[in-house]
Amino acid sequence: MAILPPEIQGYIDLVEQGGINTCQEQKLLVAHVKRVLEGEDLVIEAEKLEKYMTYQKYFPFELFAWEKFCFALHCCVFRSDGMPRWRDLFVLMGRGGGKNGYLSFEDFCLLTETHGVPYYHIDICANSEEQAKTTFDEIYNILENPKWRKKLEKHFRWNMTEIVNLKTGSKLKYRTNNPKGKDGLRSGKVDFDEPHAYENWGNINVFTTGLGKKPHPRRTYVSTNGDVRDGPLDQLIEKSMKILTGEIPDNGFLPFI
């Protein structure tokens, strides 16, 4: 296996060497990721990852090790045919773990010229407008920050409902969990914030219908656990455990639990 970027190798070392407390799911995930990286013909875009990491300066926080690890795998590891190796990222953790901060950073990066995919529109979907706006508002507030505004005005235009990168034409919008009028979306990426509230796959399927019309289609699910049983979240957890235990191939699904 080639030398891995510190964002990947650093987290692997933390888990394997006991640098942080980790659950069994994390140990299984690290073992799975190592097998994939060692056994498949993959390209890691280390220079692009390094550039992405410089965008942390705009954010009021330093990324956690787990966030850098997930970002690197989800956004910078590609198959030999140019497709993302892990198209779908599922993050399940308790409140306060950094899920929305992660989502804000990932979405900001994928809007930029560093990502380089034009019109790579990102839709943030949630069960309520308040939840859907959480990540959007965090990026909006960065753009409004007097410390960065003058510089970022050269790259973005924004209002309370839409953020657009001027060079790529990529747009970030938030949407409630209502499928009406969502047919025909041409998203590059769709985020599902707190899908524990979803009772079925209907709305998720509508929101993701347009994926594949743009290069590098991705989905990101971030959630705590909830009290809706036998819905999409339970099925995502079941799928994750089958992947982590080697019962089924991951088929581009990265489960971070």
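[next item in queue]
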Amino acid sequence: MEKIYLRPNAQEILINPNASDGALDVFAYRSENDEATRKLGTLYVVGNIQHKTDDMAYATNLIAALAKREYYHDLNLTPKEAFAAMLRKANEVVEEFFKHEGLTINVGIFAVAGDKISISKLGKFKMYLARSGKSIDVLNNVELFGKEHLTETQFSSVLNGSIQEADRIFAFYPSRAVVAREKLFREQLPKLVAAEFIEKLKGIKTPKNTFACAGVYIDFEKVKETAVEPN
């Protein structure tokens, strides 16, 4: 008996991570437990931390590590339930960070499990989905991605949607330099495969080479797996 599922192929993109916009970081996780990965899929975190005086670069790392631990914690939960439970824990940590005056946190967290995707953000974060030759601004498309509100603070809502085999995703922190070229990225995403798209990003030249980018490029392939029947 064969099992068919979508497998994400992700490329982490981190260019000039200590630029003037603040510290940038990207994380992509699978569980060490194969069963957890099969059920809950993969987890991605894109972050930008800014502070007027203190070095808070570790904050994204801490949020990402907590997100991984909590998301894969309970195999009895569905991906949607695990994502919501993870965000509640993440908000407890974020609340402590906001005691630092002058701190700005921009973090996007999303999980892909099978053909389902769950997304949440704090501050600035964007995601484009290339489908049928078009680029869709995911966080502003409630027709394809339904929004479920959780709380009034921190990671405040979750978008849930479906992924198709030929889809491509570019999820990123919209730094000033990236926003200035956002139209270009949006137009090129349906046309370029991963290596070409990333090469175009890396080839961008700015005065004093200050271009910075943190993001994840993901495409999807249909995989057939032989299911092992229990004895």
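[queue empty]
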